[in-house]
UniProtKB/TrEMBL annotation:
<protein>
    <submittedName>
        <fullName>Alkylated DNA nucleotide flippase Atl1, participates in nucleotide excision repair, Ada-like DNA-binding domain</fullName>
    </submittedName>
</protein>
<dbReference type="InterPro" id="IPR036388">
    <property type="entry name" value="WH-like_DNA-bd_sf"/>
</dbReference>
<dbReference type="Pfam" id="PF01035">
    <property type="entry name" value="DNA_binding_1"/>
</dbReference>
<dbReference type="InterPro" id="IPR014048">
    <property type="entry name" value="MethylDNA_cys_MeTrfase_DNA-bd"/>
</dbReference>
<dbReference type="GO" id="GO:0003677">
    <property type="term" value="F:DNA binding"/>
</dbReference>
<keyword id="KW-0238">DNA-binding</keyword>
<dbReference type="InterPro" id="IPR052520">
    <property type="entry name" value="ATL_DNA_repair"/>
</dbReference>
<feature type="domain" description="Methylated-DNA-[protein]-cysteine S-methyltransferase DNA binding">
    <location>
        <begin position="10"/>
        <end position="82"/>
    </location>
</feature>
<dbReference type="GO" id="GO:0003824">
    <property type="term" value="F:catalytic activity"/>
</dbReference>
<keyword id="KW-0227">DNA damage</keyword>
<dbReference type="GO" id="GO:0006281">
    <property type="term" value="P:DNA repair"/>
</dbReference>
<dbReference type="InterPro" id="IPR036217">
    <property type="entry name" value="MethylDNA_cys_MeTrfase_DNAb"/>
</dbReference>
Length: 98
């Protein structure tokens, strides 16, 4: 992976912070909006620098949370009115557009 710049980190952080309660975005949505070449870059940034952000509003393109965060993430989303069916969030219904 190419070096990640401070500007890219700040762009991702700003986009995640902009996702309103009750909405979600995918890693790919954020990568596109930030002008990044891969959703994996967003995942790396989120893994290293997102504890103060609404990280639970970022999900995979399948509508499923990361397996290791699934229970916590779905609980937080449910508290905001985002419901999952069989562990999958309906992107059609709650996807945020940047």
């Amino acid at each position: 992976m190419a070096a990640i710049t401070d500007e890219q980190v700040e762009a991702v952080r700003a986009l995640v912070a902009a996702i309103p309660p009750g909405r979600v975005a995918t890693y790919g949505d954020i990568a596109d909006a930030a002008g990044l070449s891969s959703p994996r870059i967003v995942g790396w940034i989120m893994r290293t620098d997102s504890s103060d952000l609404p990280w639970h509003r970022v999900i995979r393109a399948s509508g499923r949370p990361a397996p290791h965060l699934s229970t916590r993430q779905l609980e937080r989303l449910r508290a905001e009115g985002v419901l999952a069916d069989d562990g999958r969030v309906s992107l059609r219904d709650v996807r945020h557009t940047f």
